[in-house]
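Memo to structure team: turn this sequence into structure tokens by end of day. - J.P.
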Amino acid sequence: MKIIKKILVALLFVFIVMQFIRPEKNVMENDEKTAFLTETNPSKEVQKILETSCYDCHSNTTEYPWYNTIVPVSYWLADHIKEGKRHLNFSEWEKYSKNKKDHKLGEIYEVVENGEMPLKEYIWTHSDANLTQKQITLVMDWVKKTRLLYQLGQQPK
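Reply from structure team:
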């Protein structure tokens, strides 16, 4: 029994120390999504969907929930955000080539159509991010229209 008590005390000590070592937050002042919004020209409804369901993990600024202050949750969230930005970062849209932009839009279409995004784990704590069928249709229609312009060699606007 003494060994179990020592192990529990050690684990508690490690847990407390970990609370002071946190990953860097994904927060950038003046995070610009203007290039993306100007170029792809989403409707107000689609802009709202992107803000609510996409930007936290796919831009340079995340609005963190209160539980992000608890380790190991903060590391789990940081990993999700890093992975999300690796796949698509709306804040870096202007740095993508035309072909990459078209490809990224195609990926948006695919993951929204298949219900893979937003992630279920995100929806658990952000119920407003769960997309209705109408919202899915709005996003998919916007993506199709915007991709067509890229494919025709035109600058979407």
